[in-house]
Amino acid sequence: MATFFGAIADDFTGATDLAGLLARSGVPVSLRMGVPTEPPRDTAPLEIIALKCRTSPVDEAIQETQAALQWLKDAGAQRFFWKYCSTFDSTVKGNIGPVAEALMGSLGASQTIYCPAFPENGRAIFMGNLFVGEQPLSESPMKDHPLTPMRDSNLTRLLAPQTTKPVGLANRLVVAKGAASLAEQLSQLASEGVAHVIVDAVANDDLYIIAEACQDMVLLTGGSAVAMPLPELWAKQGRIERSPASTSSSFDPGPAIVLSGSCSAMTNRQVADFLAKGGPSFKLDPLEVAELGSARVLNWLAAQDASATPLIYATAAPDAVRAAQEKLGVERAGSLIESTLAACAEEARNVGYRRFVVAGGETSGSVAKALGVTRLDIGAEIAPGVPWCFATSENSRIAITLKSGNFGNEQFFSKALEVLDR
Ligand SMILES: Nc1ncnc2c1ncn2[C@@H]1O[C@H](COP(=O)(O)OP(=O)(O)O)[C@@H](O)[C@H]1O
Ligand SMILES: O=C(O)[C@@H](O)C(=O)COP(=O)(O)O
């Protein structure tokens, strides 16, 4: 089927989040992990390419996103989306603005919007400030993120240093008046030379207004939720079609494993909940891994009889993360844990595990790469923004869910396995 919408996600959990929300429309969604090496074939109306570039150096992120853009253009896409985190995660140098500007350049777009709001998960933007539940972003647990600590809540202030062209705001009062009012504000800002517009949204209704006003912009940027209403609009106009039975949710029988590298407040609670249920678990210590490698956890995994679901985790409280980072450096601590969890995933697959619950965006990127997963079919959502996915890994079909650090409720790990068994 010809592709109409092409999205590029800056991490793997973000990509499955977007895929899950778009799939609610019943229009086929295809998710590729990394830029495909082959030219487009067997494409869907909604194509997503997942990258792992949230914390990469800016020039690498631009290079990768440009390659993804070219593939999506070759697939026939006419509208494009740059998906980043609903908590606007970026390093101090930041990739969100530079990548958006480069995509705009390649697409000949003079303006785009930025809307990371995700009301179902408590992310709202008001007067340009991002809230997580009732807390401003910089007072939320995101202030302690291991790789992208968010110390400002104002999106205009966060984005402006990342772009060369002016940044402006279309606030909630404008959005609440409807699509025509928002479209007028955007063209007013365009006439003043504002290329990058933060758009407020606090509720799903706002997202429908934004989608209606912006559906013909060649490039949109944001969290998954602002893209959610688009397929419905385009389906009504006959640009794309629904086809509910388009994905395969089959996987080979085999035991389940939980791998957690996220240190978010919610993942800490999810790990505690799963530990309290008494299953086998192994806590990774970054300092031990730095000194002795991954042999101990791999031996532990090999000794499991798989009758109960094992949990391997590095999830830790902010002070423990800081202590490890002070000794090892932020990048090294992160990459040691990521590569250890990736090795555990590969070993688990090799010894017959077929159901994988993975927590953490960067972690998911490393695990999915280690499993050699190149394409995911999207299944049922376990929680808003976290679907089960199905993929081929080596010669097996596996079920895998990639959970954003912040998503899901406390019982997420057990719930994920229950949803799959239904
Ligand atoms: N105990 C720890 N000490 C230091 N870094 C850690 C620890 N546990 C995990 N990490 C690293 O923290 C990062 C968490 O990021 P990520 O997987 O994207 O989670 P999230 O989805 O919560 O953002 C990863 O790079 C991971 O390897
Ligand atoms: O938009 C979101 O919050 C998620 O889709 C997302 O990007 C997740 O990233 P991580 O929190 O790093 O898993």
From TrEMBL:
Leader sequence residues: none
Keyword Chloroplast: no
Enzyme Commission number(s) from the entry: 2.7.1.217
Catalyzed chemical reaction(s): 3-dehydro-L-erythronate + ATP = 3-dehydro-4-O-phospho-L-erythronate + ADP + H(+); 3-dehydro-D-erythronate + ATP = 3-dehydro-4-O-phospho-D-erythronate + ADP + H(+)
Four-carbon acid sugar kinase N-terminal domain: residues covered: 6-229
Gene3D superfamilies referenced in this protein's UniProt entry, alphabetically: Four-carbon acid sugar kinase, nucleotide binding domain, Putative sugar-binding, N-terminal domain
Entry similarity comment: Belongs to the four-carbon acid sugar kinase family.
Name the UniProt record assigns to this protein: 3-oxo-tetronate kinase
Organism: Rhizobium vallis
